[in-house]
Structure formats: structure tokens, C-alpha cells
Specification:
The complex is a heterotetramer, with two copies of chain A (409 residues) and two copies of chain C (254 residues). Chain A is of the alpha/beta class and 409 residues long. Chain A has 15 helices and 14 strands. Chain A starts with 5 loop residues before the first strand and ends with a helix. The relative contact order of chain A is 0.15. Chain C has an eight-stranded parallel β-barrel, surrounded by eight helices. Classes of the chains: A alpha/beta (409), C alpha/beta (254). Chains in contact: A-B, A-C, B-D. At the A-B interface, strand 3, helix 5, helix 7, helix 12 and helix 14 of A face strand 3, helix 5, helix 7, helix 12 and helix 14 of B. Bound molecules: pyridoxal-5'-phosphate (PLP) (2 copies).
Chain lengths: 409, 409, 254, 254
Amino acid sequence: MPERGYYGQFGGSFIPEILVATFDELIQAFEEAKADPGFWKAYETLMGSYSCRPTPLSYAENLTEHFGGARIYIKREDLNHTGAHKANNVMGQGLLVKRMGKSRVIAETGAGQHGVATATMAAKFGFDCTIYMGEVDVQRQRPNVFWMERLGATVVPVTEGTRILKDAINEAFRDWVTNMDDTHYALGTACGPHPFPEMVTWFQSIIGQEARGQVLKETGRLPTRVYACVGGGSNAMGVFSGFLDDDVELVGVEAGGRGLDTGAHAARLASRDASLGVAQGYKTYFLQDDDGQMRETHSVAAGLDYVGVSPILSHLKESGRVRFAAATDQEVVDALSLTIRKEGLIPALESAHGFVQAFKEAPELSRDDVILINQSGRGDKDIFTVADAFDDPNWRQFIRDKAEEYDAR
Amino acid sequence: MPERGYYGQFGGSFIPEILVATFDELIQAFEEAKADPGFWKAYETLMGSYSCRPTPLSYAENLTEHFGGARIYIKREDLNHTGAHKANNVMGQGLLVKRMGKSRVIAETGAGQHGVATATMAAKFGFDCTIYMGEVDVQRQRPNVFWMERLGATVVPVTEGTRILKDAINEAFRDWVTNMDDTHYALGTACGPHPFPEMVTWFQSIIGQEARGQVLKETGRLPTRVYACVGGGSNAMGVFSGFLDDDVELVGVEAGGRGLDTGAHAARLASRDASLGVAQGYKTYFLQDDDGQMRETHSVAAGLDYVGVSPILSHLKESGRVRFAAATDQEVVDALSLTIRKEGLIPALESAHGFVQAFKEAPELSRDDVILINQSGRGDKDIFTVADAFDDPNWRQFIRDKAEEYDAR
Amino acid sequence: MLAETLRARRQEREILLMTHIVMGYPSFDASLRVVEAMVEAGVEIMELQIPFSEPIADGPVILHANQGSLQAGSTVERCLTFGEEVARRFDIPFLLMSYYNILFKYGVEAFAQRMAEAGLAGAIVPDLPPEEAGDYLAAMAAHDLATVFIFSPNTSDERMARIAAVAQGLVYCVARKGVTGADTAFSDELDAYLARCRTATDLPLALGFGVKDRADVDFLRGRVDLAVIGTQTIRVMEEQGVDAIKPFIEGLRS
Amino acid sequence: MLAETLRARRQEREILLMTHIVMGYPSFDASLRVVEAMVEAGVEIMELQIPFSEPIADGPVILHANQGSLQAGSTVERCLTFGEEVARRFDIPFLLMSYYNILFKYGVEAFAQRMAEAGLAGAIVPDLPPEEAGDYLAAMAAHDLATVFIFSPNTSDERMARIAAVAQGLVYCVARKGVTGADTAFSDELDAYLARCRTATDLPLALGFGVKDRADVDFLRGRVDLAVIGTQTIRVMEEQGVDAIKPFIEGLRS
Ligand SMILES: Cc1ncc(COP(=O)(O)O)c(C=O)c1O
Ligand SMILES: Cc1ncc(COP(=O)(O)O)c(C=O)c1O
């Protein structure tokens, strides 16, 4: 029996018996791919020709001046095809699916970002594709649903449970349990049963590999600190991977929502509200009640609005290797606003969480210090959410006018 | 007196006397920059660290299979920061503005793409920024207005004339005539008075330079044909620049709108409806009436919806070096749809015009042939327009629901 | 002990019935009446599911019942009390069924102790494969509780043997891929699979997933020891009310 | 010839007035009544603008008048007929003003010939710098028409000389940066600029852009030969009607 994927006490593989053989097959395919240098090469080639890897490292000169402390560098995952780091994982899994000879992919999606990325991968590779998405998310993220449909994917609104991301994951597992023979479940983050946390991290490690080399080349030194937002943990693990063995402080930033003391947040590692549990196939910190029922979470950023967190990050938290913080919705909007104005960059609301903490700490550091922020995605894909976050009256009027125009048809 | 920028009988500099000195200064700065190898180097460095140049060349394997003719390659300008080739021109002009010591930039915008790019450049360089945009476009392109405002730009709705792109250009000139001392007008395409056609082409030539090397490296040969959409002509000139001296057929594709025989189009070079004229500071083919008054144009793609066209392209048409075709709105939506499904790529509606003609011609060619399409921008920035073009009822419902949600506040 | 009980019953009847309810759905009152009806209708053993917010292996009907129960306010404690109540009152074995997090949060040892005190016979935990089950196996063994595990059509022979080594009471054979509640085509194709199951263990075999009427049960006669009726009883209750359950169950074998 | 006419008038008056209308705005009838009023009020010369869809150098008021005229259906032909009509009827020189595309599409030579036949004195084409004006200069010269060019505050001395070499009739001095219609601060700062203009040419100098009332005209007395009233008469007409124009013009110098 293959390795079960534990990181300290976290991880594992808590799956229905019917899926065990499928996971065994996946683990084997993944192990073979890892052992085959040609596979990583093919992955890099694909990402270099279809997406735009290596993504640039941008020096945020104006923000650096503004805060007057450490030099701030930004890793530009927003420039990936489909607009976020999600593409890395998905295209990697696509190659693996081809290797396994399967013809269909399924995925969960919350914000829609991973759904669009998966539908894109499926179009490119010629796979059938079904995306599970909580009904609440289908309603609020219609633009992404529109694109998934154009890409040829079937988007299934999940009407059970809280009708958001975690329910979409459950539903994807239900599909997989039925269709595992020809279907691969392309999980979107470094969570879930083994080998997903490791596999997603592996594909995302391309971020950290590139970033390490780029920072060194650009500044002649390693960064003092690296910041990344943490939803499931894939972009954070991706960038952190490049620096785990270095004397570099790693900081994960979770969704503080309306504040850690309000309960309306999604901070598993930065708050005291989470506890160890087993759900969705793996063991980690979950936001759950005393009975073990999962709680509702809240974040302005749909992609961070999740009850669990990568078991690898739980382990790195426990071992002290990664420090965790939380950013509130309001702080996120402010940091986003500042970044747009000062640098002409539009981080995704998710990514902006990392910026918040970096901005808090940059002034404490000196000009000799370098900090690196992972801009996991671009915010212009989320105009509806961002416009609401900024509470823009002109936007509301535009939508009303548009609705009237449609009504008049 | 500096060169006046004629290409055959096209081009020139028909400007009010008050701007002559400003143009002289600009021409001089541009000539100096061109002569300074360090300038181009700085430009490349900026585009490599802030945007993601070189942009990839993607092999469209599925489309190639689908059409069964020439191998189809796609130059990925959609992966630029801000989502289109417009960034190349704008960042280049930004460097020039810095060199000239000015502190404010203005620009016209139609679709909003050039406006967002300019506002981004201004944020990055710390310039004040005013964007002129026809009132009609402000209404239909609100998302871009939203981002420009977030980027710190003042967006001025132009309420005169037909209230679209050409009127915004006039208005930008009116601003410039007043504020030329500290202000640069960052024109968005290879049109307008000298040196704009040449200067914009120069910055955009980075596309063709890269693409030529990439196609050669990838296929061991030059493309048989290169396709690009033509609004003002900047992305077309950009990619064509790389192949002007080669035995490569260059094809520019204009907006055929509802059809060339309906009058509702923007085909200056591919239709017989245009004639030689002088407006907005330069001489070229314009869609105008017998009195010389500009006509209304139409295209599903706002960025191609313009009365004039680059004087360099008019010249290349006259000399026979570039062939021109037109794509109708319906053909564009179909080509867009196919490209999304087959390749997971979402070209902008503008860019999709180039795809239409390439798709018409690919089957006539053999597998030995290589064709290159310039994907000038990404379509997901235009969800409102694209959703309308696809006539998606779910989208309309989403907007209605959203409007109700806002009404209920 | 559970295995013996079931074997004894099997002497009396060619096929046994195991039924399933989600405790607290739509209410604990209703659950009690359903258990009563089932026992009266002669079922030999029952699964009592403690609802979980993420029931990953369950199909829409049971999923919905999980949520309904939670929304109505059921807690783990209330479910355990209910289990104790029915175990004391009715003379058939009851299994608890839930996802591992429920046990884990409760404390696996404490959970097992509580089960034993309540007079329950054992448990089924569908997301707990034997590889992850060390603590659970120890605790259940310490309290003489049956650890029911699952075979599936794509469980290898080798793995079946390994599962059988830790299974207690009975083995639950999943009839097919998929979640609970979908139709299963009962055909001879099943035979090869069930033969493999039979070779792997001499525990009583229960077959579930999609058993819904008398024809299905007839088909299973001679092939397995127990037929599991899960989703279908919830459907009957939802569509025809609690009173319809007894005749439905009786009709499956009469 | 135009220069002589103007110089002669300048003997009689310390400052001449040049006024401007957009032909066909709001109607050709109105335009005719405005010309009449202006002539009666004693203006020495008038600019008649043929509207263009892209009047790049004009400010909002004149821009709006261009569009209003076009929307009301005015054509180049109608404007030329109007020009001919007023030139025959009133005994002052009339200049055509328009953007180059109007002349270019008509055919520059044909346009000049038509102007001459109509008895017009010359033209101002604000987007046609001398460098681009080869055909135009030839055609205008062939028909003895004045080619009015423009000086601006940032035109260099050297360039003024080059412009002066092809200018005919008068030189139009733009008072400041900006488009027509905005306020101009008439101050001594202008003097240095006007001195440069004066050095560059001995043609009559007209100063425009922002001249709006008697104080402005008074200021220009002795500094230039002509004050140009452009935007302000359109404003007066729009706000107070055609009848207000005559008293307005008369008030500028009385
Ligand atoms: C742009 C972006 N960043 C971050 C995340 C969070 O995911 P993860 O923590 O796996 O990187 C998401 C998820 O949708 C995302 O879209
Ligand atoms: C994506 C894209 N492509 C093409 C164009 C047309 O401009 P040009 O012809 O200058 O490339 C535009 C203009 O907005 C654009 O946004």
C-alpha cells in the first residue's frame, strides 16, 4: 500500500472504500511522474507556451517608497492564463490525466477561478468536463459560470448543504465515486486526501522555484519574508516551497472576514476557533462545532472562504516554520485600493490578504530587507465582488441600467 | 523641421499651430530614444518585469486538427498585464514621458482597454492621468471605467459628437492644446499625426520581433501567413513589423459589422466605402461622406469601431504588401466560440476578427504551412459585450437579479 | 458476537434485512416510530446514522436527510441517547453509522465506551479505511464492539483479505460504484464479485446500494446473507409517511 | 488685397472687429440674420465656418455649433452658396473657415475656384500647417485668395518667419494655449508675444481666443489690428437670441 501522506499528525486519506483503487492508481501515476524528469520538463514547456511562465517578478517601487521599509517584490501569478495560480495545478493534473488515459475531468469551484481553469484545461486537452459549484456561488459568480459554459463544461449547481465550496467538493466526490473509471477529479487546492496536498503543492512549487531564482538575481539576496494568502493553501505552498530550506520567514495570511472575534471569518490557523478534525478525506484544522459539524465561514474573497486548510500548512504551523496572520475584509479592500493606485496592479481579493500583512510589516524592516508577496491572481475577474466591496454607486447604476435594457427586450 | 511622417501619400501631421512645438519636442524625444540602445533595453526590461514579455507563442493543436490544413500558432498578447497589446505602446510612451520630464498623461479610449492600460501606466509611473471616453462607451464599458477610477485616473465622458472613440480623440487633443507643457497625450494606436503612427508601431514591433523568433524556433520556418485584426492598426503593425522583409503574406482583418453591403461596419481598407481624407491630424482612408464628414461605424468589437486607420497600413495596402479582409459580427462570435471550446483561449472580440479570416484560409493550406494569428487581447475583460454577443439568457437573469439586489439596499 | 447473532438468524431465514435511518430526520419522534415499524416488520438489524455536515459517500436522499436532521437541531449527544433508547427497547442489534469526524471529535475511545454502555452492537464508518483506523480498532475491540468494514467491486482480493482481518460482525458489500440511492442493475455480473467477497471472509455479507424492492431482495437470496435497505425507506417515508414503512418492509420478503 | 482693405480700415479705426459664425447653426436663416446684424453693427470682416464632424481645435461652444449645423442638415454646398450670398450682399470681406478635410474632399483647386467665384476673400484652415499646405497655397494663389495662417505663443521666431512667408491678408494670433471659447487673461504678458508677431510680419494682426467684452477689446487697442469675437457671439445668440447680437457688437467699441 502506498504512502498515506501524513505531515506530522495532519493529512492522511479518509476515503470511501470504492475510491481506494482509484487513489492507488493516482498515487502511482503521480509517483511515476515525479520520478520522470521528462514529465516536469513537459509541464514547464506547456506552462511556458500556453500560460506565461516564468511569470515575472515585479519590483513595487512606489509601495516601497510609500512604506519606507523593506523593498517589496511581487510574484505575478496574476499573469497566468485564466488569471491565477490555479492554472499551474490544473494544467499539471491535465498532463497526469492524459498519462492515466482518462477522458473526463471534474472539479469543485468556489469563486469560479478553479472551475474556469479546469474547464480551460479540459478544452485544451479535449476532456469532457463537469464543474460542481455551490448554488450560492453560481448566483454570485455568474461571469465565471458563463466562461465555463463557453469552454464546454457542464456546470452543476450544488443545492445541498450550505451550497458553497465545501458542498461542491462533496458533490465532486460523489460524482467520482460513480465515474472513477474514466474520470479524474482535479481538486483545486492543497487539501483533500493524499496525494492531493502533495501533488498540488508539487505543481504549484513552480512558483517558489522561479521566485527564489528571480529574487536572488534581482536583489542578490534571499527575501527576509514571503507572504501569501491561504485559502486551501495551494498558492502559499507553491511559493513557500521555494524557501523551506532557507533562512526566510514564511507568512500565511488567512481570511479575517469581519474580524477574528466575530466568528465571521475563515481563519483556521490564525484564530483559535478551529480544531483538529477529519473531513473531505483528510485530517487538519477545521472550523467546526463541538460535535464536529462544519461551521459557516465568511470572507470577502470567495476563494478563501473554506472550512479546512492544507494539512501541510497545519504541520508547518505546528512546527513553527510558517507564521499565520489574518486580514479583515476592510483591510483587504484598503490594501487592494492602495496597490492599484500605487503600482497599477490589481490583485485578486484573495491575493490582497497577503498584501495586507506585508504592508503591516514592511515599515518595521529596513531598506536592506526584501519581502516577497505572491500575487496569486488578478482582481479584474471579480469585478462584481470588487465593485461591491468598494461600494461603487456608478457600478450599481450601470447594473440597473443594464437590467432595464434587458427588460426592454 | 523634422520629418513629417509620410508613408506614400498617407500620414503627415495636420495639427493646430499651437501644438507644433509640442510635436517637435515629441519627435525629438522619440528620435533620441530610437537612437539610444539603452532605451529599448529599458523598455524590454520593464515589459519583462511588469508585464509578461516575451508573451508566449501557443500551438493551437486542436484548431489545427479541426481545420485539417495549416498548423495554427497564436501569439499571446492577451497575457500582457491589463490584458492586451495596448500595454506595450503605453508603457513605452510612459518611459518617453519620463524622459521628457512631463508629469501628466491623457488618453482617449473606446473599448476602455487603452484607457485602463494608460491609467495603469500612470499609476506605475506616478503621473496624473485623465482619460477621455465617449459617453456612449462610458455607459457600455463601465467595468473599465471602474478600474480606471480605481487606478486614480479621472475619466471624462465626452458628450459631443457621436460620443464614441473618435470624439474622445478630439477631446484629448483639446486638452493637450491647453496643457501641453506638462502633459503628454498617449495616443492608443498607430494613427494620428506623426510621430504617433511610427512611434506606436515601434513599441508594438516587440510583438513581431518576438513572434518571428518564436515561430522559427518552434517550427524551423517562417509562417506562410500572419493574421491580425485592424482597428487603428497598432497590433497589426506590431506583429507585421517582424515579417515585412520576409516572404510572408500579411493579412489585416477589419470589422465587417453587419456586413460590408449594409454600411454598418468599420472596414476602411477591405471595403469600397472609405476614401482618402484628412482628420484627427493625419491623412488616410476614412469612412466619410462626400462632404468629408465622418460616418458612423459599427462593430461588435468596440476597439475596431473607428473611422480611420493607420496611414502605414493604408500605404501597405496600396503597395500590395498587406492584404485586407473583413469579418462580420456573426463570424466573429462563431470563431470566438470555436476557439474557446477547442483551445481554452478567450480572444478579445477584436482579436477574434483575425481568427475568422485565418479559419477561412487554414483549410486551403497544407500541414507544411504555418499560420500565425495575433491574439491581441483577452475577451474575459469584455464579459458584458461578449455575453450580449452570445445572447446568454442566464447572464441577463443574473444582471436583473443583481439590479434587484441593489434596488433593495 | 454480532456475527454469531446474524448467523443464528440466517439459520431461520434465507435472507436477512438490514435497514437504515438517519436519526432525527425529520424528527426523533419520527425516527422512533420508524424503528418501531421496522422491528415489527421483522428486520434483523439496523443502521442508525448520526448526521454529519459533510456526508461525502451518501447520495442525495440520505444527504438531504443528514441536513434535515441537523437543521432540526439534532446533536451527537441526542443521537447517542436515541441509540441507547432503541437498543434497550428493541431486541435486534443496532449499528451506529457515521463519518469519522463525529467519532474523532467525540474522542474515539470515549465514543466506543459510550456505544458499549448504550448497548449498541458496532459501527460503520464509511470514510475510515482500515489504514487510518488504528485508534478506532483498538477502542472498539476494548469494548467488544463490531467494526463493520466495506468491500467494493474494485477492492482487490489482496485488499479484501486485509480488510477481512480487521472486520467484525459483518462485511458491507457495496454493490456498485456510486453513492447510495441510485439504481443498481442486479444481474449475474454481481456473482463474480460476491464470490470474491465470500472467499475473503466468512463473516456474514450484507449487500447494499440500491436495494429497493422485493425483486432485488429475491435476487440476493442465496447470494448474500443480508440485504441492506437504505435510501428506499427514506423515500417511502417522505412520499407515503411513516405508516407506509411497515408494509413496505414486510413486502420485501413475504 | 485683403491686407490692403484691412489696412485702409485701420486708418479709420484704432481697432477692427472680426466676427465668426458657424454657418447653418442653428439654421441658415438665423445665420443670415446674424451676418446682417454684425455688418450693421460695423464689423470689418467675418469668418464663416463650414461645419466639420471633427473640429479638433474648437472648444465646446463652437464644437456644439458645428454639430448642430450638421444635424440640421447643412452641407458644404449649402455653406458655399450661403457664403456667396452674403459676400454679394454685404460690403465687407468674408473668410471661409473650416478644417482641411472639407477642402480636401471637395478638391482643393475646385474649392479655391468656387471661393473666388463666390467673391470670398480667403480662408483659415486651423489644422493645415504650412508644411502640409503645398496644394492649398498654389490653388489659393491662383485665385488671388488670402491664405490666413496662425501664430501661437509657442511658435518660435524662426517658424513665425516661415509662416509669414506664405501668409496672406492677415495673421491670426492665438492669444494663448487651449481651444476657442475659454477665458483669456489679457495682461501685459501678451505684449512680448505680440511684439514677436509684429516683428515676424507686417500683415494686419488679429487676436483671437477669448475676446468677449469691451474691456478685452480696449486692452487690444494699439496692440493688434483686429480683435476676433468668436465664441462669445454664439453664446450671446444662444442665450439672448439673434436680436441681441447687434447691440452686443456695438457695445464692444462704443
Ligand atoms: C486568486 C486566488 N488566490 C488564492 C486562492 C486560494 O486558494 P489557495 O489557498 O489554494 O491558493 C484562490 C482560490 O480560488 C484564488 O482564486
Ligand atoms: C484587444 C484589442 N485588439 C485590437 C484593438 C484594436 O486596436 P489596434 O488596431 O490599434 O490594434 C483593440 C483596441 O481597443 C483591442 O483592445
